[in-house]
Design goal:
Elements (H helix, E strand, L loop, with lengths): L5 H10 L2 H12 L3 H13 L3 H17 L6 H22 L2 H16 L9 H18 L4 H15 L1
Length: 158
């Protein structure tokens, strides 16, 4: 089965009644956990972005506590999983400020991580790539926000 384009979906949804759209959304939420999480964000959490950021930060903290420290391989794999989890929640928001805030928080947690990530070349590479990604994304923001985020990033590179 070939999926329809966004344009086709939009035109088809415009022709449907609100009841039918409601039924479609509920049916969609049953198939994947990510669909349900996105609907939860859009309906309940998008109004208060700061509370959403705090809840995601708590999730990052919990996942960092569960990181497997037994070997460098498992360490890298666990940290990658936390990063993928963080990026999933960033995609829900689509806000540049939220994205930077969460990525910088992830970098701060990674920098303070024990055992030190600077002893593991692969994890250190992940860290520095994230900092570089944050630098690039900061350039697209308002000047006042750029200054604040660049200061936070400079603190991470020391």
């Amino acid at each position: 089965m070939k999926s329809a384009t966004v344009r086709e979906l939009k035109s088809e949804l415009q022709e449907r009644s609100p009841k039918e759209i409601l039924d479609l959304c509920l049916r969609l939420s049953r198939f994947k956990k990510e669909n349900k999480e996105l609907l939860t964000y859009l309906l309940f959490e998008s109004a208060d972005e700061q509370a959403y950021i705090e809840s995601v930060k708590e999730g990052i903290d919990e996942r960092f506590e569960l990181v497997n420290r037994k070997s460098p391989y498992f360490l890298k794999k666990s940290i990658r999983a936390v990063l993928n989890h963080t990026k999933k929640y960033i995609r829900y928001s689509q806000s540049k400020e939220t994205e930077l805030e969460l990525l910088i928080y992830f970098c701060q947690k990674l920098n303070a991580f024990e055992p030190s990530i600077h002893r593991n070349r692969k994890v250190e590479t992940i860290y520095y790539r994230l900092i570089e990604e944050c630098r690039k994304k900061t350039g697209a923001l308002h000047e006042d926000l750029q200054y604040d985020y660049f200061r936070e990033l400079e603190g991470l590179q020391k």
